[in-house]
Amino acid sequence: MRPLFAVGLVFAGCCSNVIFLELLVRRHPGCGNIVTFAQFLFIAVEGFLFEANLGRKQPAIPIRYYAVMVTMFFTVSVVNNYALNLNIAMPLHMIFRSGSLIANMILGIIILKKRYSIFKYASIALVSVGIFICTSMSAKQVTSQSSLSENEGFQAFTWWLLGIGALTFALLMSARMGIFQETLYKQFGKHSKEALFYNHALPLPGFIFLASDIYDHAALFNKSELYQVPVVGVAMPIMWFYLLMNVITQYVCIRGVFILTTECTSLTVTLVVTLRKFVSLIISILYFQNPFTVWHWLGTLCVFIGTLMYTEVWNNLGITRSQPQKDKKN
């Protein structure tokens, strides 16, 4: 039952999290820093109470290693959220981040000297083609939507290019963090709850450098219209309600993924997360009526089919539990 429960948490938490994030960034596109800070603070406090035992529990992995991991994790989180302020639409944001397999393979070849089968190279090529199609179509939309003047169109396109650069950087940094985390787990064993706590607690002082931006958006949130929270019956500014729900659903999403990693193989986890991203994309397109052409759908299918090909789900899904080590060869 625990795997099914975890799958339910992933879909309910992650899909609803995307909705509340898009509700936030549609009102204030530059609110990424306050969203990131709230998520980090919530998970850090929860981990301090229940995982670190109010600071009395010693970490299994030395703090100096966490310091390196935390620097990468903090950078990835801030850059990913800030990219939404650079003319990056939510669907493109989700599709682009689905290209993590490309970054993982590139850095795996360079750093870990891994070698892959032709089938996996083909699947990564399909993912790359899909991302390229979606990115190209989104570029055309940016320039066409900013047709008031040539100067404004060029400016919008420049910011969009910076957003693509930010997403690419975050993608590669995230893959590098994954490799570093993999080497730590091999040396010290898996301590996922501990890593979750330190990854969110140690970066908190870094938000001092973003304090002015966080304060400005907190003031904007205070000015939003009041919303009567169902069941509770308490009235609060609607932007704070969106942020609260975003933080809660983010925690539910993360907990679900961590339970999955302990109960299922990496193949199953990848499959569930991939399907979740696809459902989130559908919700974003239908609920928020984001522009999505036939070319976007073609690119999306390339990304998700390529991802499923990479996991070799067609051959392995039925025998995953009997051969848990098979997908670790690559």
Query: Average pLDDT, to the nearest integer?
Result: 83
Percentage beta strand: under 5%
Output the strand order for the largest sheet: 1-2
- Which series of helices and strands comes N to C? HHHHHHHHHEEHHHH
| Oligomer class | single chain
Number of helices: 13
Q: Major beta sheet, specifics?
A: 2 strands, antiparallel
What radius of gyration results from the CA coordinates? 20 Å
Q: What is the percent of helical residues? A: over 70%
Question: What does this entry look like structurally?
Answer:
The protein is mainly alpha-helical. It has helices at 2-27, 32-50, 63-82, 90-97, 100-111, 118-145, 150-188, 192-201, 211-222, 238-263, 266-287, 294-311, 313-316; strands at residues 226-228, 235-237. A two-stranded antiparallel ribbon has the order 1-2. A hairpin with a 6-residue loop joins strand 1 and strand 2. Helix 1 (2-27) runs antiparallel to helix 10 (238-263), helix 2 (32-50) packs across helix 8 (192-201) and helix 5 (100-111) crosses helix 7 (150-188). The chain is globular, with a radius of gyration of 20 Å.
